[in-house]
Write a structure and sequence with these properties.
The strands form two sheets. This protein has a six-stranded mixed β-sheet, with no helix packed on it. The protein has strands at 8-10, 16-17, 26-32, 38-39, 56-60, 64-73, 88-95, 100-105, 118-128, 134-142. With 144 residues, the chain is mainly beta. A hairpin with a 5-residue loop joins strand 3 and strand 4 (38-39). The chain has one domain (8-142). It is globular. It binds zinc ion. The site of zinc ion (ZN) has 9 residues, from loops.
Length: 144
């Protein structure tokens, strides 16, 4: 929580947990015990789209991955659903679980995010809602 005494609210419930043994945040996904397919976000009913069995179990995804593509967005997306700062970067992150995620990618210099570089999961404020609460989301950030 840091020094902030603001209320922090996840953008969406159930995407991640912070209460892990190593203390770091982890995304919550599903893995099929039959065919090994991995999903994010977690599939609530436990059905695997790949093998059509109800054999999914909840897993904590790897907090590390490799950035395989990145783009910098300099104008707010149309539609009014995005309330975060502009510019921002997003891209594809390949987790060691075999899952490819579309994620926002945060860095001090958005134009020098290394494609092919390692990244790790962070939970960051995206924007402040009208009640003054910090709306939190997951992002990946490059690691040296
Ligand atoms: Zn399956």
């Amino acid at each position: 929580m840091g020094e902030s005494n603001q209320q922090q609210v996840p953008l969406k419930e159930g995407f991640w947990t912070s209460g892990t043994p190593d203390g770091g945040p982890r995304l919550i996904g599903s893995r099929c015990t039959n065919c090994g397919e991995v999903y994010f976000p977690k599939k609530p009913k436990g059905w695997c789209l790949h093998c059509q069995q109800q054999t999914l179990e909840e897993i904590l995804l790897s907090p590390r991955g490799r950035i395989s593509a990145v783009t910098v967005v300099r104008q707010p997306p149309a539609g009014g659903f995005y309330h975060g700062p502009v510019p921002y970067a997003y891209g594809l992150v390949d987790l060691s679980d075999g899952l490819r995620l579309v994620s926002q990618i945060t860095a001090d210099d958005l134009d020098s995010i290394p494609v092919g570089g390692e990244a790790e999961l962070v939970i960051k404020p995206l924007y402040q809602d009208p009640e003054g609460r910090e709306i939190m989301t997951f992002m990946f950030t490059p690691v040296a």
